[in-house]
């Protein structure tokens, strides 16, 4: 059957968590580059990237090296998830039922939903502050509401509109950040731009981890934006366009934050430093970042809503969610986030970073299990019908092997953790560097592969998975 051109696809997305049939597939694989490049040039990654020199006291050279290493490593995992989208045609979170069972996947889906609600709320705070920085007469709370409404409209329209906006953003923000770099390097306001900070192993490892975790945080919803592509798109093409777009865009934003704070006096807020460092073009940069955060934040709202729909549909399995359902849930999430963000805007970003560090401890083993199951166990062949059955079909309500590997994957990270709730002894010994994500990946991946291959129902699931290709 011929795949319709993207121009024939409806502007407002009609699918939610359901399988996207071949006749509704559209788009080009290059759209993934623009989505993840344009979407990552935004205030939150700029603020996060500045931490390498602000908090971990690296100099510019070692800060840049740590940022690049982290994004290049973490981006591999993120892009491997993206490559699943065209083959599966369903969102990432509901696909987790094939690994964990229909009920076993609930914890991971809930965690992903909470994390993306946190991302959304944090970004509308940054949108509010950016708007206030551009127009002093607009209070931060009003800016928060404006940013939330803008993201909400984009998220409700859905998949196609998100891709269109990021194609535009790639050119506008790409040129903007290059111009911004040029201005900063020709108007440095400090004498210690190249000498402030120094190499320290714990700070370098912490910055690598921060960059890698930034990429891994996209894993639970990255394939949501590739699932509409035709099923015959090459896995390698999906991987590389996603990888290059995300790693390049994120690295530029992280490095921009580090450069801006080094070019301005010590102690400045990152976005204030950006405004000061970019001088006469500062207001324009803030406008671009404001538009970026509104556009990119639609992804967080979209992902959070799909996670919530997945949770509800697990129990209300006869419910067929529609575009209207997605819009209603989006509005509810938007209002709740506005209320929380306005009430705690002064220290919201700090609390958000703390929350993400905790949640990623439980998302990293999921990433390992999902990738091993998709690429090494089932080799991309799943029974889509079973995934939507209340009893999990051939995958059951629980998968003991996945849940055991998941629990062990969390446990082995504890000594290496550095979160507001707990600092592990290994992390404390290396001055706070958090390597829990790396340990979690290295232990969970081979453990799940071994457990899955010992499972007596493995061959039955493999045979059932072949049904997916006939849908």
UniProtKB/TrEMBL annotation:
Keywords: Membrane, Transmembrane, Transmembrane helix, Transport. It is a multi-pass membrane protein. It comes from the Bacteria. The chain crosses the membrane at residues 33-53, 60-80, 100-126, 138-162, 168-186, 198-222, 242-264, 327-344, 356-377, 403-423, 435-453. One of its GO terms (cellular component) is plasma membrane. Its main location: membrane. InterPro entries: Pur-cyt_permease, Pur-cyt_permease_Fcy2/21/22. It is found in: Membrane. One of its GO terms (molecular function) is transmembrane transporter activity. Belongs to the purine-cytosine permease (2.A.39) family. This is Cytosine permease. It comes from Pseudomonas fluorescens.
